[in-house]
Amino acid sequence: MGNPAPLSVRYGSDWRLSALCRDQDPELFFPIGTTGPAERQAAQARAVCAGCPVRVPCLTDSIGEADGVWAGLDPTERDPLARAHSVYLAEVARLDSTLPAAVDERARLASRALAAEGDTTAALALTIAAGADRTEIETAAQIAAATSTETAVLLGELGVTHPTRLRQAAERLLTTAIAIAFPATPTLAVAS
């Protein structure tokens, strides 16, 4: 499986050079505690992140971080996203392991398409959760939809239907991302 968020590739490994936090005291992003001064400190860190152009690669790299404010999200916000992200990618890997041995070209193509679907759906969720702009979310959604369609076609050629567990894991991941990006919005159902 490749990078869980290929959209960050365009920033390269040096995305930190464009991060607004690079000119800030790093301690600002690691408040001690969750109330009083720590709460104000976290709010200041979030304010820096709010205008940052590299929130998506930041969240991609920090999804498993236990501490700090990354991409404007604290550990309590990143943790459910990390769990949903992990469950989704594990389901992609589980399904991939059930495909016939990769000696058949169709099985190889289906396996690659499944990996691409995993990458692009995860990238869409991280893009949403990071608070990306509408254009970036729409682009990620179009890419994810196209890879999902390609995967369904290739799996269908092998006699495998697009499994319910994979759709449910994708829905959970995307719903979690939406809840993080839009906390005041009631839970939205994602079309499957």
Description:
This protein is mostly helical and 192 residues long. Helices cover 59% and strands 0% of the residues. The protein has helices at residues 37-50, 55-62, 75-98, 105-129, 134-157, 164-181. The radius of gyration is 18 Å and the shape is elongated. The relative contact order is 0.13.
Radius of gyration: 18 Å
Helix content: 55-70%
Largest sheet: none
> Which sequence of SSEs, written as H and E, runs from N to C?
HHHHHH
Broad shape: elongated
| Helix-strand makeup class | mainly alpha
The beta-strand count equals 0
In DSSP terms, counting alpha (H) and pi (I) runs of 4 or more, how many helices? 6
The low-confidence parts are 1-10
Beta-strand content: under 5%
Mean pLDDT: 85
Distance between the termini: 23 Å
Task: From the structure above, extract its key features.
192 residues; mainly alpha; 6 helices; elongated; disordered N terminus
Q: How do you describe this structure in short?
A:
With 192 residues, the protein is mostly helical. The chain has helices spanning 37-50, 55-62, 75-98, 105-129, 134-157, 164-181. It is elongated.
Task: List the topology elements.
Layout: H1 37-50, H2 55-62, H3 75-98, H4 105-129, H5 134-157, H6 164-181
Helix pairs in contact: 2-4, 3-4, 3-6, 4-5, 4-6
